[in-house]
Specification:
mainly alpha
């Protein structure tokens, strides 16, 4: 299904084409998902699993320095977004679908919760500058790790995933640790 959305976008992908690709009848797709928006939602909810989330979370926790934690987090963010890029872009075409509106809000909330753990870990080892509260650090990390900046960098500017990852690592170091790369 991801391939269909990648090739044709949200509007150009029909439920009939999805059913054909899946080898089932069109009514079966409607009975299972209810709508195209719900199909995109199902694909997006698999993002963390597709990108081996638990392994990355452990890697970030075990990173020995604040800089290494942020570099691992930037790598995780890049893998997460790049592995689901086609579905993310298709979801952009479905931005007004109720399932997508709900999912984006849920994704933003979960990302913020995940970042809270990272920021708290940095604060616990006094890695944040004195002038930066944990709430402001959380705000900064949340703003710069969103999907919109990833798409702007990779699609809008033509950056590779490696270039995005390095930029994000540098930006997180500057914004959260007060250090330049």
């Amino acid at each position: 299904m991801q391939e269909l959305f990648a090739e044709h976008g949200f509007k150009g992908t029909t439920v009939a084409a999805i059913a054909e690709r899946a080898g089932v009848a069109t009514p079966t797709v409607y009975a299972t998902f209810g709508s195209k928006g719900a199909i995109i939602k199902a694909l997006l909810t698999q993002m963390e699993g597709n990108a081996d989330g638990p392994r990355w979370i452990q890697r970030i926790k075990e990173a020995p320095t604040p800089q290494a934690k942020l570099a691992a987090f930037a790598a995780w963010t890049t893998v997460l977004l790049s592995s689901s890029k086609a579905v993310i872009k298709a979801a952009g075409g479905a931005a007004s679908e109720p399932e997508i509106v709900e999912l984006r809000a849920e994704g933003d909330r979960r990302r913020r919760e995940g970042l809270r753990g990272l920021i708290d870990a940095l604060a616990a080892i006094d890695a944040l500058p004195d002038r930066l509260s944990t709430e402001r650090a959380l705000d900064r990390a949340w703003m710069v790790t969103g999907v919109d900046l990833y798409l702007s960098a990779t699609d809008g500017c033509g950056w590779t995933d490696d270039e995005y990852q390095q930029w994000l690592t540098d930006l997180l170091h500057e914004q959260l640790l007060g250090t330049s790369p």
